[in-house]
Design a protein that fits this description.
The protein is α/β, with parallel strands linked by helices. It has ten helices and twelve strands. β4, α5 and β5 form a beta-alpha-beta unit.
């Protein structure tokens, strides 16, 4: 893959961190955190895009934006919908509008929470969204804003992301393993754990197609770790990687572990459209988790 002039809003998060780290050799990457680039502030977005355009001209590299900025506090969003919408809904609208005016392609990262989770099988890209939470509703608003903006843009949904930077399920389970004799973890919600390093590699492969003029005809794609499990199965796998007894993790139901925001019962996203577009499917989630631990994702 050739180098990119890459702007990554949300560069301070786990995905943004890995997008910067795994960018193709020869790339010029700007991965600002929110203090430097606030997608809710139009002036900040305009300045960042203008800087990207100048960088692309000076370096001779094709420009592209991969938006990893998001309000991801799912439960907090229930009592702070305006904050969630500002980042997840209005932010992508502004970003897409400026990308359109500067003729810079945009890849926007979205979520499984746009679905209600009631489907029995994996969700396809053309299944009708029906979010059950404020977080999911605001992320869907961001999808619509991007797709209707007139920008050369793609929406990529993913799920159950964990990585080296920031807080996530794997780190939480790793911490709790050292604090508790037993854990109870929900066993009636299914999904596909996705290592942010693998997701970043997939998004960068898509970016390479886009800047070469071979971007997929379909503007919505799914990119997740291969296979599926439950949160309970995921937690037991983390214990196994830590060398701890997985039997210390016990299953429970969603009703036994109530949260402010509704969670999809089924979060599994089909990668059929991703593969049909000629993109490389991500490896099986369990294999990726082992590799993540080899990279010292969680240390005791």
């Amino acid at each position: 893959m050739t180098g990119l002039a890459l702007l990554v809003p949300g560069g301070g998060g786990q995905l943004g961190h890995d997008l910067a780290r795994h960018a193709p050799e020869g790339s010029v990457v700007h991965a600002p955190d929110r203090s430097e680039l606030d997608v809710t502030q139009a002036r900040s977005v305009v300045d960042a895009l203008d800087r990207l355009v100048v960088t692309a001209k000076e370096s001779g590299l094709p420009p592209v934006v991969i938006n990893a900025a998001a309000y991801t506090a799912v439960d907090a969003a229930e009592s702070a919908p305006d904050k969630a919408f500002a980042v997840n809904g209005d932010g992508p609208r502004v970003l897409a509008a400026v990308c359109s005016s500067r003729q810079v392609p945009l890849i926007h990262v979205s979520t499984d929470y746009v679905f209600d989770g009631e489907k029995d099988g994996p969700y396809e890209v053309d299944d009708v969204p029906a979010p059950k939470s404020v977080y999911g509703t605001t992320k869907l608003a961001g999808e619509y804003a991007v797709l209707r903006s007139g920008a050369e843009a793609w929406v990529v949904r993913t799920e159950w992301v964990y990585g080296e930077s920031g807080n996530n399920f794997v780190k939480t389970i790793g911490r709790l393993e050292g604090e508790r004799d037993q854990l109870s973890v929900v066993d009636d919600q299914r999904g596909s754990p996705t290592w942010s390093a693998d997701l970043a590699t997939g998004l960068l492969e898509l970016a390479g197609l886009v800047v070469s003029g071979r971007g997929p005809a379909g503007r919505v794609l799914h990119c997740t770790g291969g296979g599926e499990t439950t949160w309970f199965g995921f937690a037991r796998a983390v214990f196994e990687e830590l060398g701890a007894d997985p039997r210390r993790v016990r299953p429970c139901t969603t009703e036994e572990f109530p949260r402010p925001a509704a969670r999809p019962r089924n979060s599994v996203l089909s990668q059929a459209a991703w593969v049909d577009a000629g993109l490389t499917p991500l490896r099986d989630w369990r294999t990726a988790l082992t590799e993540a631990f080899k990279a010292n994702l969680v240390t005791r």
